[in-house]
Write a structure and sequence with these properties.
It is a single chain. The protein is of the alpha+beta class. It has 23 helices and 26 strands. A hairpin with a 2-residue loop joins strand 22 and strand 23. The radius of gyration is 34 Å and the shape is elongated. The two termini are 40 Å apart. 37% of the residues are buried.
Length: 786
């Protein structure tokens, strides 16, 4: 029986080549896209799960209230780790991280500027899964003057030689012995270190107080004992902390599971580059949409061809075939189509995967022999075959043989209504994707063009290091003599992401119980001028005024939250420095546009400098870079010259949104293309059924345009119905997405107009081709048999 089913299915496939190509092609594209999206989702969900003890590892998040506003920080004081380990029996191990933005390694008299390093405790190598190639993880970080290198760095310095025991000079201060080499951490890790240094070296180097509870600058990770609850342990930590430090009350301590960090992180001072669970849900829905659209094509074409197969079904029933056998036959055909489509889809995925990885910034691979992948492909095959073939099987097997063989059978209204309903559903899904794509692109354009309140164009950012701190004035004077350099300034942080804040500010007129969280940025006297920041009140810093070393400039939001009237001239103090407010700067974006502009204070502190900003004109950029590199080499020869552009840092902040926009574009195109395949097949089949009608109309004088209108109007109605259904759905979904941005574009009616115009245009083009082809045919050929 099954052999016969297969033979019939195969003959139908061969004898109806166009129908088969449309069905299998649409299914293959839909399945290939679904596989690509599922691979992306699988990669996002796999983060940090490779650690052997991942289920017992947690990151500590501390919460508190400042000025009535609850804030949550991923960082804790240095003593916090030891405190919780000694006081909470459920905690088996604990470690701290302090990220190193950049450092100088020197080997064989060759300097290298390295990033992505970390100071950490020895427990890190026991808690997390580091695959050591050289050395012993149990002792690798026990010596203060040691370093553990990633495989990439070890190859860079030692070119395949054994690294263990060799010496590297660190920041021109210490000779560090290489005590271990580990395999590069995988891409699906929220922490990706290039090298590890002992935390004890950090304590010695920076002279930090191990009992300093006011410096929240360290990431703390805890390993709980088996069966211990993160929620319960978090509550215990909170109670203990508030008992020990009643004047520094926390409102909550969250132990965030390691495997949640990548997708569920939106805290202050969080590690950059994390994903967002929202996008996992969005792309999961898109995968389902596209697979449904492909299945709908199959159902539509199968039911549309019902009249052609009616006699076959009638004969089978007459000679004894029962309903479940016919259902089995048609389901078997659908599953055969699905199997072929899955095989083609896998081939398509292998072909486009390199391009897809480049676009999604992933390193995804398709492991066909993996048990999970084989199970997923089998489920997709069965789902597609059943979803696409179940209704056609029930529909076709229900035909009455007497009517079929007498020639009185008609497909009936039910089949037509179903096909129209499926076309509407297809276009609802496609229009939602079109509208989503347009709104995402509008938001990305808005972000790129938004006035930030400062001039970020043609600004070169140079990370400060080494002797440049001592020779800063000489460096600035040499560059300012260059005709292409307009201004130079320095600041303590990257202007696109000011993360340092304090609640310890005091000012004239402050209420005793008043407290606000104030972002802080140390700058030099040329900062306001260099970035062309407008002043709302007062004046900018000035070299002509010697008192500006103790002067402060607030932004408008700070003045608003502090409740100060006439702030210029009033006293202000922070970090023990007392001075005067000399001006109020107009609000400018110093963080992502996902966040509203927060209170900010600018002050002058030569000790707090990390970035140097060189403002130049576009034409002089190459000459400026050459001059800056030459001056740097002369004044700071031990450190390599490195730079980037400020607008590049700004663009990097929205990399995830930009990738999402690109993926949306491609997925929307694929959904529309698959829908068009279905429409093309339906239109071709309708033209075939109405060939004689068209011939009669042409003989009676009908024009090509009237026949085109006759064919197209039904499909236009369906698209308009789909648009009415899709519009509120798309609006709701995209409104929720835009809520993640503090500054966002309005959802314009133009977006919906463009969506319907585009949908109608592609419908008319798809249907119109078949309509014109049928209308242009010679009526004699179609009427010859009458």
């Amino acid at each position: 029986m099954f052999k016969n089913y297969f033979k019939v299915a195969f003959r139908n496939l061969v004898n109806n080549k166009v129908y088969s190509m449309l069905n299998i092609g649409g299914l293959a594209m839909g399945i290939a896209t679904t596989i690509l999206i599922l691979l992306w989702i699988g990669d996002e969900l796999s983060y940090d799960r490779y650690h052997t003890q991942a289920g017992q590892l947690y990151r500590t998040i501390v919460k508190g209230k400042v000025g009535g506003q609850e804030v949550a920080y991923t960082t804790t004081p240095a003593p916090f780790a030891g405190f919780i380990q000694s006081e909470i029996p459920e905690i088996e191990n604990v470690t701290r991280y302090n990220l190193i933005s950049q450092s100088l390694f020197t080997y064989d008299d060759q300097p290298y500027q390295e990033r992505d390093g970390v100071y950490t405790d020895p427990a890190t190598l026991n808690m997390f899964s580091f695959h050591f190639l050289e050395g012993n993880p149990a002792t690798a970080l026990t010596e203060p003057k040691s370093v553990v290198l990633s495989q990439t760095l070890a190859r860079k310095y030692f070119d395949g030689e054994q690294a263990l025991g060799k010496t590297i000079r660190f920041d021109n201060q210490y000779d560090l012995k290489v005590t271990g080499v580990y395999e590069d951490m995988p891409e699906n890790s929220h922490l990706r270190f290039a090298y590890l240094l002992p935390f004890e070296l950090f304590v010695q180097n920076r002279n930090i107080g191990e009992n300093n509870w006011s410096d929240y600058n360290y990431y703390t990770y805890a390993q709980l004992k088996e069966q211990a609850s993160g929620e319960v342990v978090g509550g215990k930590i909170l109670n203990l902390f508030n008992k020990r430090f009643p004047d520094d009350k926390l409102t909550g301590v969250l132990l965030q599971p390691l495997t949640d960090i990548h997708l569920y992180s939106n805290f202050n001072l969080d590690i950059s580059g994390n994903g967002d669970i929202q996008y996992v849900y969005i792309f999961g829905a898109i995968a389902l949409f596209i697979l449904l659209i492909a299945c709908i094509n199959f159902m539509n074409l199968a039911t549309a061809r019902s009249i052609k197969r009616a006699k076959e079904i009638g004969l089978r029933k007459t000679i004894g075939a029962i309903k479940y056998q016919l259902i089995g036959q048609f389901l078997g055909e659908a599953i055969l189509y699905a199997v072929i489509a899955v095989l083609l889809a896998v081939l398509l995925v292998e072909l486009v995967l390199p391009l897809y990885n480049d676009m999604a910034q992933k390193q995804i691979s398709l492991h066909l022999l993996d048990g999970k992948m084989l199970s997923a492909l089998l489920l997709i095959t069965l789902f597609t075959g059943l979803a696409a073939g179940l209704y056609p099987a029930l529909f076709l097997s229900s035909f009455q043989p007497a009517k079929v063989l007498k020639g009185t059978f008609q497909a009936g209204k039910n089949g037509t209504v179903l096909r129209k309903g499926l076309v509407v559903l297809q276009f609802v899904l496609s229009i939602v994707l079109i509208i989503g794509t347009l709104i995402i692109n509008d938001q990305l354009t808005y972000i790129r063009n938004k006035k930030l309140g400062y001039d970020k164009e043609n600004v070169i950012v140079v990370p400060m290091s080494g002797e440049i701190y001592k020779n800063l004035e000489a460096f600035k004077n040499e560059l300012l003599a260059h005709p292409g350099v307009q201004d130079i300034t320095t600041a303590s942080q990257n202007l696109t992401d000011v993360a340092s804040s304090t609640s310890g500010a005091d000012w004239e007129g402050k209420a005793t119980d008043q407290e606000i969280l104030l972002n802080q940025l140390s700058v030099d006297l040329d900062f306001i001028k260099t970035f062309k920041i407008n002043m709302a009140e007062g004046r900018a810093f000035s070299k002509e005024r010697g008192t500006d070393s103790t002067a402060f400039i607030l932004n408008e939001e700070a003045v608003k939250q502090m409740g100060i009237t006439d702030p210029v001239g009033k006293s202000f103090s922070v970090h023990g420095v007392k001075g005067t407010i000399i001006g109020v700067a107009e609000d400018f974006n110093f963080q992502s546009v996902h966040q509203a502009i927060a209170p900010l204070v600018l002050f002058v502190s030569p000790d707090w400098r990390s970035n140097l900003y060189i403002k130049t004109n576009r034409q002089a950029i190459p000459e400026t870079l050459t001059a800056a590199a030459a001056s740097w080499k002369e004044l700071n020869p031990a450190y390599p010259f490195e730079c980037r552009f400020l607008d590049e840092s700004f663009e990097a902040m929205y990399k995830a949104e930009r990738r999402t926009g690109q993926l949306f574009d491609y997925f929307a195109f694929i959904a529309i293309f698959i829908s068009c395949l279905g429409l093309f097949g339906l239109a071709a089949y309708t033209a075939e059924l109405r060939t004689k009608e068209i011939g009669v109309r042409k003989v009676m004088g009908a024009s090509v345009s009237s026949i085109l209108l006759l064919f197209s109007k039904d499909y236009v109605k369906l698209v308009l119905i789909a648009f009415v259904v899709a519009t509120p759905c798309a609006y709701f979904l995209m409104y929720r997405w835009l809520e993640g941005f503090a500054y966002r574009t309005a959802i314009s009616p133009v977006v919906f107009v463009l969506a319907i115009v585009f949908s109608l245009a592609i419908t008319l083009l798809t249907v119109g081709y078949q309509s014109v082809k049928a209308a242009m045919a010679n009526p004699v050929d179609s009427l010859r048999s009458e």
